[in-house]
What we know:
Blueprint: H1 12-23, H2 29-42, H3 47-54, H4 59-71, H5 91-103, H6 114-121, H7 125-134, H8 153-165, H9 189-197, H10 215-228, H11 236-252, H12 263-280
Amino acid sequence: MPKVASAVVLSEADRNQLESWVRAQFTPQQVALRSRILLMAAAGKQDLEIADELDVNRHTPALWRKRFQTQGLDGVWEIQPGRGRKPSYDEEKMAAIVTATLQTKPKGSTHWSCRTMARAQQVSPSTINRLWQEYNLKPHRTRSFKLSRDIRFLEKLTDVVGLYLNPPDRSLVLCIDEKLDNYGTHKHPKVRSWLERHPRFALHFIPTSSSWLNQVERWFGELTQKAVRRGAFISVAELQQTIGQFLQAWNEAPRPFVWTATVENIMAKIERARQRLEDIKPGWSKRKRRKKRQ
């Protein structure tokens, strides 16, 4: 009979802590791996099954079962003497690099690169790259969310989401983005005149600073990420050709974007984001008042 591994029993606090380390963005990769091993072992999986699923040596799960039984959670972050690559810099220096990555910006730029951070910290680019990988730091990636200050935000949000989730009977909802003047095409006299002659066409507007609500923007995101962002184009014609090739490939196997978020869910997320921004910068949510002219 195959040998049955010793059971790993987790308290609720230990389980929550391990799951937190797995989810956290800046947990070192080796700590996240150990946490997954213990969670899977506690779920009743055997060592060979864990090793196969996580692509590690078959002895590794057994090692961490034993270490957890003797050291508890404290052992998850511990590196045994003589193991691993010897650090070239002390903990204070590495902490300074991590802090600079998270809390500062290089002069004239929006984010650090390995080379600019290496010059600023007087270390090698490979050291920066290794440290960023260990702490899962990716300053080149953009993650932002702009909150709208449109005074009719909720009204417009409810209107557009209603069209997505419950469109009028026998209607066609088209998502359109104005790319020429980016705001006032629908106000042009010729457009207004055409709309007056065709009353069955009705315009619905998303709130300002809320392009995420327009589903065509989601498609533009696909185009940008998969065909444009990492490309190099020596002419407008070459860019147009690339976009055309993407369109052709997309239309060979198109898939629709299906809207599922309700107004209530969206407002709950926005409120959490607003509260987070308020915690970071108190007073942010207060609308700025224009000074009255004397």
